[in-house]
Amino acid sequence: xxxxxxxxxxxxxxxxxxxxxxxxxxxxxxxxxxxxxxxxxxxxxxxxxxxxxxxxxxxxxxxxxxxxxxxxxxxxxxxxxxxxxxxxxxxxxxxxxxxxxxxxxxxxxxxxxxxxxxxxxxxxxxxxxxxxxxxxxxxxxxxxxxxxxxxxxxxxxxxxxxxxxxxxxxxxxxxxxxxxxxxxxxxxxxxxxxxxxxxxxxxxxxxxxxxxxxxxxxxxxxxxxxxxxxxxxxxxxxxxxxxxxxxxxxxxxxxxxxxxxxxxxxxxxxxxxxxxxxxxxxxxxxxxxxxxxxxxxxxxxxxxxxxx
Length: 308
Fold this sequence. Notes:
It is built from two helices and 18 strands. The chain is mainly β. The protein folds into two domains: 3-277, no CATH class; 281-308. Strands 1, 4, 5, 6, 7, 8, 9, 10, 13, 14 and 18 form an eleven-stranded antiparallel beta sheet that branches. Strands 11-12-17 form a three-stranded mixed beta sheet, with no helix packed on it. It is globular, with a radius of gyration of 23 Å. The N and C termini lie far apart (83 Å).
């Protein structure tokens, strides 16, 4: 990424901005029963997780993302779903390519990346980086191909803010060690955000009751920061959003995150959907049937009147 030149410009990573359309409510079944129990869901709010930028050439990079669900927001009063309720856990995993430009505005390579949502019986482990993709017991419930996106991530000059410890997350989720898990790794301070859009290719209808292929997924990375303060930095990532772990995380950034070829950052994101085709509820179908029957009866009366 030519770190020194980009740092001199105050930029470590940027993507061309994409503005998603207004989100729509979908019908989502948290246990995948399919036969009922679907909730109205407007936004999938993901807990602070991890992103990794891997330089693949002086002008290209691959971005990896992984996070646990925090909550599914619902427009229904008291209808929000908290991740893990009833033993139902969900994760979001992404892997996509971008082009890098010296001017600081870089673009997602259309079709060269995916976003996937998995259902699992346990939470993904941010510290190890395992349990987010296709680990044993996980079920892929949605896959979408990236079409466009944009964002920016700026590192502050080390002259203004000296490097500090990468891992400043004091507490830990179940199964994760608290405190500084990487005492030998420092980081430059940085902030950023991003918007990415993707098109749904496949989905599990037992979870997503009213999606269709071609639905747009809006991925909004509203907060991307260094050092970490709400999650543990990940030791591994999935390179393709399928294989669980396998790609080095923290160990790939060097002794000071922001000065090597790779960059790791805490990322907080959410997803929403547009272009959804609603499935009528039984009452709606009944009313529709009555309406069609009434129309047919009216036409028959009109024909009889015309003959008379």
